[in-house]
Amino acid sequence: MVNWAILAPVIIYLVLVYIIGYYSYAFVSKAKAGKGEGFLSEFFLSGRDLGGFVLAMTLVATYVSAGSFVGGPGTAYVMGLGWVFLAMSQMPTGYLTLAMLGKKFAIIASKIKAITIVDFLRQRYESNAVAVIGSIAIVVFLIASMVAQWVGAARVLQAVGFSYHVGLAVFAITVLIYVTVGGFRAVALTDALQGTVMLIATVAIIVMTIAVGGGVSNIVKEMYNTDPALITPYGPKNFIAVPWICSFWVLVGIGIAGLPQIALRAMAYKTSQAMHRAILIGTPVAGFLMLGMHLAGAFGRVIVPGIQSGDLVIPTLTAKVFPPFFAGIFLAGPLAAIMSTVDSMLILVASAIVKDLYLSARPNTSDRSIASLSTIVTAVIGILVFLLAIKPPSLLVWLNLFSIGGLESTFFWPIVLGLYWKRANGTGALASMIAGMGTYILFDRVWSRPFGTHTVILPMLIALVVIVVVSILTKKPSEEVERRFWGV
pTM here? Predict the structure, then answer.
């Protein structure tokens, strides 16, 4: 039965999202009419005019997802405080991304008029094959990741009384409407709203969890009584070993700059001051969100024991520690985290199909046709993800981490070395992307924790060796590439 006292604040939040989508539609309509930078730039990059606060929030909100607000706390519920410590390796995500890519990426992307990550790779390496492999990787891994997010959203809406499938449908319809009508601008502006909601919700949830549990000392004591391993850095059965901890600093720390949906933010800001402001705001906000939500998940083992699905921990905990109306307000936090990630992925997958694959084959397509195709493709992808999410996995954090590792293994070195190493060429980049993606999928199936590390480590090392060796052994990039990217 639907709990309307909890549902009412969630409905108010969804109405605000629709209003932002309607506001953004005015910019998309203007671009369709031929005014401004053009439909592609507006729909997929919001005209490159994000300010510092919006950039910080869209960066944080895009990364802080169902994995951080639902799946991660659910895993902390099972693994204890060790998983909280592990999650904090994500704190410098925004700083590392903007510091590594930052000014250089934005300047070059604007100079070569790149609208997508694949645009950048195609022009940097003068290779259609690199663009095709990159587009395929984006579509495959981001669809897998979106499935995890949509499952998380349905779990949250279960807490207000919907069935899993009705909650899934409500979420799918909302996201599809505001993304298809408002494009990247709607994504960025809703991210600003969602980041703010996430921050407020995290403060409220962790404070009330500690209060209901009788204080941190009492909760930790109860965790120890349940299982002493819950308060160690290694978790039950020493699952979180030292090599695993170290590898997470690559997977969810440094390697995040290789995620196309995150790297894209480094192309979309207005000024260098906006970038610096985004670093100052985004880093502590991301750190607090990670700490607060994962602690709440771990402490939930005492407050709401006996939960069978880890993905239901935060929704159940929120409903337990708040009166119904306030529970609805703060359940909007996890929902915002999920929505802010899904919309970014959806727009990126659509851009890979429309901009990077279709338009590369049919460059003379009219803006009107592109606009129609973009809307149709976005809707079809959303429907596909909805169908795939009907039968959910037990812990969505693993599906989310699989997608993150796959994208990093494919894109990290071609993006970073493409900016900072002149000798990197198309042959090396193509070989690196194939080697990184191929070995990651292979190891995930047959050797998921090589030498105790996360699967991503060996594929990223292999991808680095391949791009360096192949680039050195093959032809240098053309003089045109050197002139356009380095001015020499």
Answer: 0.77
